[in-house]
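Lecture 7 notes: from sequence to structure.
We start with the chain below.
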Amino acid sequence: MRRALQSSAATLTAVSALLLAGCTADTGTENVFGSGGWPGMHADARNSGTSSVTGTDAPEFAWSRPVGAPTPVRATVAATGQIFLTSQATEGCNLLSLQIDAGRKRWCTWVGPGAATSSPVVDDKTNVYVGTEGAMSSFDQRGQLRWFTPVTGTPLSAQFTGDGKLLFVTHLGQIMVLDPQTGGRVTAPYDLIPPASYTQDANVDPIPNGLGLDACFDGGPACPVANPPAIDLAGGRFVLTFTRPGSTRADLVAMRYTGGENPRIEPVWSTTTLDDGPAGAPVLSADGATVYAGDNAGHLWAVDAEDGTPMWSHDLGYRPLGGPSVSRDGLIVPAGGGNARLRALRDRGESVETAWERDDLTPVGGAAQTAGGIGYTTVRDGDGGVALLTFDTATGGTLDTDVLTGATGFTAGVSIGPDGEILTPTLIGELFVLR
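Predicted structure tokens for the same chain:
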């Protein structure tokens, strides 16, 4: 079935942009993420790009509205249905909150430059956490500032640890763990690159907190850490991408947050695998045993999460514009890209096989998988148009196609609401919602 959706932002001009790129806690960990929504950039602590909600095989247009500026990140959705979205607006407001029922604006505010580097994160009390150049901030559900904590660099999307603390990495490589109630430091910062602000030489200026930020959208070498981490809630291990100064390849780096009475951040392993830099956030398998990550040379890698040993790599044939969606049973759906073909992969341990592939479809955003074997992604429609594809995750077969009228180019990826709503912001700056 094919339906043309009415756009409320047909006059927006396309801009050049690149795609950047619920939590169920394990036994003994605290579920701070709001269950039933899409509380972080990639849905959960392991960056799975999946939802436990059962999807619909025939979604219908609900509403769309312009955001007012390019939107290179996914929408965040609380369990209450409150939406949070950042944009690249240079004035006015760049953090927007909407209600999912009809798109009514709850509030919007200016949080500082760099907010659109990654998606906000929302907790089970509908408090929202968002980074800007030189700070991490938290707002309540009404848009009132709760706290503001200075950092070095620009924070990427945060994660919650197993003991309920807020963990994030800035694009300049500073790892921080904060108390989500007060914004106070839980551990000392861990710097992957010693910042110039630590120098004793008064003649040396501190590193600007926005230095190289534009390179984060395509994993360029000027952005040391371009993606949010994936975290194993039970063990405290988290994995991130890291481009060392002067290198053309990026590392996968594993660290551990210990928690307990003397919480600290410790290095675990590092492996140089990502040619030409990272192409999206790393993803942990459901059992925490494997890390999946793409590179700008068009490879998808599987790495042993225990020691960083590469297990296999798969040539996708294009540069993925984001991390893959990885279901609990191990189905891997890579993100779209310039000449991509929609496909699904299966990890067989020391090798990978293609589960299915669609030569007739070009995905242009990150996919989302839901319960019931239903997936969603945006695909190219005609000459530059965009449609939302609903597909059977077992076979890749088309269940439904909905044209996003007025949308062009790429999208920031699909998010899933608490009642199965499908949300996708376009890079030109409009949010579409279907249900």
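Points to note: Confidence is low (pLDDT under 50) at residues 1-30. The CA atoms of residues 369 and 375 lie 4 Å apart.
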